[in-house]
Amino acid sequence: MTTPHIVSREAWLEARKAFLEREKAFTRERDALAAARRELPVVIVERDYQFDTPSGRRSLGDLFGSHPQLVVYHFMLGETWEEGCPSCSFWADSFERTGVHLAARDTALMCISNAPLEKLSAYKKRMGWSFDWVSTAGNGFGVDFGVTFPDKQQTAAGGYNYSQKIFGEEMPGVSTFLKLADGRIAHSYSTYGRGIDILNTAYNILDLTPMGRHEENLSYPMAWVRRRDRYGA
């Protein structure tokens, strides 16, 4: 960290007010972007995906519960993996206890992974999480929504983050769905890579601080991240 520029309170206030104008412009642009996102077209989900859940086999439509909206976090935990991805675990810590608030705005949140349900349940217990988490049970959901690339092969999703590139067999992402009045399910949006940053509370808090994420000198940006029960180990 470089030594900060130290000034008087008056000079600080002047600089802060000037920066506030940039923050307000960003907020207005963010609101405009969110509005434009809501105006994006949707596509009907034709495939009958079935998932393994603690209450038995359930369809994609069942995962909505009583809500018209469903947000899916594609959690990286492959069929043969022993643990969840450290970075996805970092993100998932931000999901805890948010479900009740989302439900108040007609939305369900669900984590979905390729690993068998018993492995998801064991890892969920280890991490102390209570949010809903179900298994794709080999139904191709991760492949179709651009986060699973078997044998690192290209799929119809067009590579990771619409890039035509493949970086691994499992990647993170978020997808949103809407249940229409006639019961059909529509896919409204998916985002990957830096697009999922907004879901990470810790990163957003760090962005407010003088040191920020201070990842510049690491071998890769999230090299410092550990599963919550592995810090200090």
Automatic annotation (TrEMBL):
Protein name per Swiss-Prot or TrEMBL: Putative dithiol-disulfide oxidoreductase (DUF899 family)
InterPro entries the UniProt entry points to: DUF899_thioredox (IPR010296), Thioredoxin-like_sf (IPR036249)
SUPFAM superfamilies xref list: Thioredoxin-like
Organism for this UniProt entry: Roseibium marinum
